[in-house]
Specification:
The protein folds into 2 domains: 103 residues, Periplasmic binding protein-like II (D-Maltodextrin-Binding Protein, domain 2, 3-Layer(aba) Sandwich); 117 residues, Roll (Dipeptide-binding Protein, domain 3), CATH 3.10.105.10. The longest helix has 16 residues. Helix 4 packs across helix 6. The chain is of the alpha+beta class. The protein contains 7 helices and 11 strands. A 6-stranded mixed beta sheet has the order 4-9-5-8-6-7.
Length: 231
């Protein structure tokens, strides 16, 4: 059987640890070593990871989608928040759908609420169509082809959460859009360069412990852990 294609997160992790020796690997946990440096990667739900970070049990954790503003306002962790604008956008690939339906999705995408999931001073929502075009697209929805849109998310749980919000806003307008891993005819992912219906620029926010030195993230969201050390 052909090998299962790696997700973007798995590919980034493989690149990030390419100079390390894998000590052990099992579902949800990978231990790597390079000289005296030993790093343990754990697969943890983002909100749980944030709790473990606050308890001092993790040195790096994602800031859950929608919690960035709260984290920046929290005196106990705001100094640990690192925010990086990525060379990518969150976008819906709807190339398999009828052109009229693609146009309607683009004209009615709820980019404003989606952009609120990240700091508005760092994220620029993809340019929305003029209000008149959006209203016209909404009025035309009853006459569109009756094609159920099933969106598969190519990314982590936070990206899936954002896609779920978008799908709910489209359903409120009468479009049959749902996030599903089965019978997908549209795909939501973080892409560079952008392709499809752009929703917002991608921003990565993480908690980084003060104990960590040399942590840097490039524009593709990859960290060179070979340069990382602990105080």
């Amino acid at each position: 059987m052909p090998a299962r294609p790696r997700t973007r997160d798995e590919a980034q992790l493989a690149e990030a640890v390419r100079s390390f020796r894998v000590v052990s690997a099992r579902r949800g946990k990978i231990v790597v070593r390079r000289g005296p440096l030993r790093i343990v990667f754990r697969q943890v739900e983002p909100h749980r990871a944030a709790v473990l970070f606050r308890r001092g049990m993790l040195d790096e954790a994602p800031v859950p989608l929608g919690d960035v503003r709260a984290a920046l306002a929290d005196r106990t962790v705001h100094g640990a928040v690192r925010i990086n604008r990525l060379a990518a956008v969150d976008a819906l690939d709807a190339s398999r759908l009828p052109p009229s339906l693609r146009a309607a999705l683009s004209a009615t995408a709820d980019r404003r609420d989606y952009a609120l999931l990240v700091p508005e001073d760092l994220d620029a929502a993809a340019k929305s169509p003029p209000a008149r075009a959006s209203r016209r697209a909404r009025r035309a929805i009853p006459g569109l082809p009756h094609v159920p849109v099933r969106v598969r998310v190519e990314g982590d749980g936070t990206l899936r959460y954002g896609a779920t919000l978008l799908a709910a806003s489209w359903r409120d307008l009468g479009l049959d859009v749902r996030v599903s891993d089965r019978n997908a005819n549209a795909f939501f992912s973080r892409r560079s360069p952008p392709r499809g219906i752009a929703v917002a620029r991608a921003v990565d926010a993480r908690f980084i412990s003060p104990r960590v030195r040399g942590w840097r993230e490039n524009a593709r969201g990859v960290v060179d852990y070979a340069r990382v050390s602990l105080r």
